Please model this.
Amino acid sequence: MAAPVTQGGALGGQTAGGPPGFDRKPGPDQAQTHTSAHSRRGRTPLPWLRWLHLGFVALIYLFMLSPLLFVVWLSFFKDAILYFPPSGYTLSWYVKAWDNAAFANGFLFSLQVALIAALGGVALGVLAALGIIRHRFRGSQAVNTLLLSPLLVPGIVAGVAIYLFYLRAENTLDMDIVGTYGGLVLAHVCLTIPWTVRLVSASMSGLDPSIEEAARNLGASGRVAFFRITLPMLRPAIVAAALFSFIVSFENLELSLSLVGPGRTTLPIAIMQYLEFNLDPTIAAVSSVQILLLGIVMLVTDRYVKLSQVV
Model:
């Protein structure tokens, strides 16, 4: 009498008698091997595509930095009359630039004006951004647009407008403003305020107000909460605003051209006056020093505040 065949036995006999792997459930190792093989077939590695991308990015960086590299290279040319290829290289143009009193005095004067303008513009810009973002009032958007409008006005137009305003103020107040140190610094402060308002306003809009409210609920006054909570969170934006304000003021030519007085010549104006009668690599040497100075300022700033988080 034949023994009854159970379902499991039938399946077992079918599995044993059938072809290898027929109706057999794959094990964990086989499933993982099959999945990895399928992934390798689906993702074909293209190493040349990665190198092509890196090469394209390198070309873009080279294209953007080529004017700076060319100026630095030009400052070492030996020939006073520029032509290619140069007959040799020298450092004498840097010595000539240092011996020129107009460049040395212009550099120190521009540095002084830029530092004061950056500090004043950041202080006033932070207060303006705080009033616009945290204390809404009727006409706040109009004030914000007015503070940002110097970014849209060409520099030469702004310089002529400030010059005409100073002339009208001199006639009204019966005092000298055009050509004075205070008038130039005040104009540069007005030039740097929009950068602070723009950066600090954008950073302040992204802050969580509940953090400051928690400090107020724990007993901190409004001033303590601002200086201990809000201001440290705004530090990247404030440092970036100070950096851009310094650069904009230090390299400004259009605004300063009609406002400087005797003995108060900025470095860009000294360069322009030198180019009226000379054309040699001395200007390239002066420009290379400016590039080095601003590069060091940006590297030191990025060391403490990551500019990529703000810019």
